[in-house]
What does this fold into?
Amino acid sequence: MPRQRAPLEPGAGDAILVPGQGSQHEGMRRLVERAAPGLIEAAADLTGADPFARATGCTRLTQPAIYCASVASWRLIADRVRPTAFAGHSFGEFAALVAADALDMYDGLALVTLRGRLTEEVAAQAGGGMVAVLGLDAETARSIADEAGAVLANDNCPGQAVLSGTEPALAEVEREVAARGAQTRRLAVNGPFHSPLMAAAVGPLEQALARVRFGEPSVPVY
It folds into this structure.
């Protein structure tokens, strides 16, 4: 018999995790129309396009679309939960800060839009991508990455790590992981995110962050 999830109740002590790139889905626009409609026009103005129409395979549009959907999703449940903490996975941190009342949602959208554009531009120059390693511990995955010239980008959970690097490095990772009897899966991203290859995006994003006001979060944000 499937386990039933308890209904959300105020004071239940939930910790809310906000996802990053790769969590896009077809219903995002409807979510935003329902809970944060002002973000739709703002996102179109900032990106010069409809980000929800091209939310797959185009980083500069994918990231704003997911951000808007994350903010909308939180607003739909905000009156039913009192989380003890928020956490943002990758750029999900921006929506987590909005949910924790530490960042204005339109400032967050502007930052995410800039981040999406910068990462797409830098990724196009750097080449490469990301690969999930399934069935090996993080230290073994890190060792394989070091040998191949890749990096450990995400230590997600026991038995799942994500490596980032150039195409030749990832191909070597896949060969070595297969030789050890484990599995790999390429991520649906178009760049070596969370690696030194993305360093050129840091300066412009730091400048934008310095111009935005961040408040004290209502609960811790990790």
Remarks:
- Strands lie at 15-18, 85-88, 129-134, 151-157, 160-165, 183-186.
